[in-house]
Amino acid sequence: MPVLETNQVKKQYQMGEVTVSALAGVSLAVEQGEFVAIMGPSGSGKSTLLHLLGGLDGPSDGEITLAGQPLARLSDDEVTLVRRRKIGFIFQFYNLLPTLTAEENVGLPLLIDGQSLERHREKIARLLALVGLADRRDHKPDQLSGGQQQRVAIARAFVNDPEIVLADEPTGNLDSKSGTAILELLRKTCDELEATIVMVTHDPRAASFADRVVFIKDGRLVQELKNAGNRDVQPIVEVMAGLEL
Ligand SMILES: Nc1ncnc2c1ncn2[C@@H]1O[C@H](COP(=O)(O)OP(=O)(O)OP(=O)(O)O)[C@@H](O)[C@H]1O
Ligand SMILES: [Mg+2]
Question: Which pTM value belongs to this model?
Fold first, then answer.
């Protein structure tokens, strides 16, 4: 059974008189342990899709099932709990709280869920070590580099043992060296923690770390590429050229 499944998902935004169609019927299944990259031009619906997958917004039509649970059948409170306990989020601009240390930022999803950090200290330390920040535990975000802040955000995304991690341009704001380190880290979490990851990116190099690349255009999935996470950019670039992306 896939961890995450969408069936003919549509999303329209109403802007006064005008209806904007952001997603025009997307069906996608993500298997446990899979690292999927979603690529497509600006405005093609990538972030919209990620928001719907994460229960941050509801579809206009179609169904989204996470870990066997159709999100539409849940109350708002239940969706909030699913988001807290089953999903990890990584954004382009880290979204760390400036007054909290690295350790506290990593533990934030647990705090929000009413759990004590004390009980999870070992796990937080393990995650900080995994992202190479064992010695930056007590640093605040403004005492960390951009790449280090994003690594804190990655550790945070995994702290609730999520069924799936959703990442929107996680390397979009980083130089190429830090970006590569982040992508290697995501690859490693997939291989070692058997994490399931859906990552939106513009960058074929970033997508080349994934097991599968899904191409979206005008709110539709138009092509798929099995990639084996082998970091070969060429096939991705060729599909992009073929689709005129
Ligand atoms: N809240 C909103 N209200 C109205 N229209 C929206 C809203 N959010 C997105 N859209 C529209 O939906 C379409 C898809 O937007 P989306 O943000 O999903 O694109 P994207 O693929 O993530 O683009 P980018 O690569 O630039 O981030 C766009 O045409 C956008 O203008
Ligand atoms: Mg976007």
Answer: 0.93
